[in-house]
């Protein structure tokens, strides 16, 4: 019976296969139109707050129209929502990957999809895989604006891993494709961190732990001292950062208080200048700006709305730090525009006029012309003044939306569109940008439905804000720890712990994802503080109460790290191996790599009889990373480890082949200084001494802060004396 059905399906398909190319093309256009309508139906669902239904409709676009290019737009809509709203990085990544395929002929979409695939890995803490994707963005889309962001994420990832020379190398390339360095205007967004980088050869003579003092002054009266840390050993770069906030100036409190339109003057004393000057002051001015954001929201101003209800107030909000210029409640000017849809006759008349004037060139069947006509017609525009709320830099206005055309009031009709329009003159980019938000006018009680959630939303918002504060404090502590400032790190961890413990009881009452994220933040703090029992207990609680959590693999990884720190290697190996078997986790390669590191650590502690066997197990574990998880960000590290084993076995030729593979294909691998050192030693053993010298010199030039750079320098000097 099944065979008969299959044959019948094939016979029914034959006429379609026999169609002319013209018929097949028309079928494709029809399919695209249907997919587009379905995509827009999903957009409409999102407009009225039916997010789950919107996701279902976009997914149906992918399922029902697998050949239409519109499916790529559906993938990107799904991915953006999952990444930015729900923060489900793994699910978002799958949709970005689907939009990044070669069959997508839209390079802008592909570049965006590639970049955000890497962003998902970065946010999930998988920096190795993030590096690989970001390098693909740079190689495949060299002229796209995504290249700057790719270098930015590569730099941030290396900085988090402590690879400071590679972090600087990547971050220095951010912005190079926009214009020359002299043409760039230094800006910082109010409320964000101000990063300071100083390049001075004098830093190479600084003693360990010595910092560079920088002074930051604002036009509005604040003054803060920032201490920048030299990056690595014998380095010429010092890095520092300070948080900015919109508030009245309070000098020397560790935060740079700014106002809209403020200017920050950054200065430090250059002890010895290139012109042989002494103790000269270096100055840099940074303009404080705000990136404007226009919104039409619910009554709590927490959730964007795409629909405005007749007879109910409409809530307008613009966020822009530029207009927070005084300690009082400032004002901001904007406009509210009312649009109606053009009639078919109006669209046809406009189309005919623009074609006749030569503005539009008529194509076959006019397929692409009507899409270039704006379907909305401006009915009127009303100026509005928004007043600053308690939150600095946020301006709000609530207006009743009435039916009709009464003068002096905001009136509209069902089916029309309201657009909030704000001209953002100063921002991180160039020129004036028009920031807009739109809502469709409808009849009903949409606003009342949302008001029932206002109190809960406000509580959840407060708790989430506290969680973000704890996360930021933990991150600051981690940076202090990276620079060896353990006392300062412990203070930040203690602050973060206080915040989390204060909200834990309320988080239990709210439950759901909020409690889940609180558990995650607590275990991260405990682990950073080396309170391993508490970290282990918190991650186990997460597994018990949220067995389907998206953080399960991270929890398993954290538990394994705890056991490894305790040198309970068998238990750690078991956990790492379990992680490597999770079917959909991007951390599988990480788990497999750490299995090898555990065996290697055991081998170093074992007696000679067991050591060789454990080293062999470690080698096989690293080989499994290369063979079973080729997309893992740990492939380069695993291959480097394999090469080190070949060197120990005196199989120098094979080791050289592996070293060359790492340097060519894995520029973001860890241990590159060690790789270059061992590469040079292998070449020396093979009597290829000039090549060996070049590798040692490369190590000295690329990784001057490495502990083995001085040893490499001694070898280079010896090779020079020997005439190589």
Describe the structure in your own words.
By secondary structure, the chain is α+β, with helices and mostly antiparallel strands. The protein has 6 domains: 69-180, Tetratricopeptide repeat domain (Serine Threonine Protein Phosphatase 5, Tetratricopeptide repeat), CATH 1.25.40; 185-289, Immunoglobulin-like (Sandwich); 293-451, Immunoglobulin-like, CATH 2.60.40; 453-532, Methane Monooxygenase Hydroxylase, Chain G, domain 1; 550-629, no CATH class; 652-724, Tetratricopeptide repeat domain (Serine Threonine Protein Phosphatase 5, Tetratricopeptide repeat, Alpha Horseshoe), CATH 1.25.40.10. Helices cover 52% and strands 18% of the residues. It contains 24 helices and 18 strands. The strands form 3 sheets. Strands 1, 2, 3, 4, 5, 6, 7 and 8 form an 8-stranded mixed sheet that branches. An 8-stranded mixed sheet has the order 9-11-14-13-12-17-18-10, with no helix packed on it. Strands 15-16 form a two-stranded parallel ribbon. A hairpin with an 8-residue loop joins strand 17 (417-424) and strand 18. Helix 18 runs antiparallel to helix 19 (608-628). The longest helix is centred in the middle third of the chain and has 29 residues, at 454-482. It is globular. The relative contact order is 0.06. Mean pLDDT is 79; it is low at 1-27, 175-185, 272-276 and 446-457.
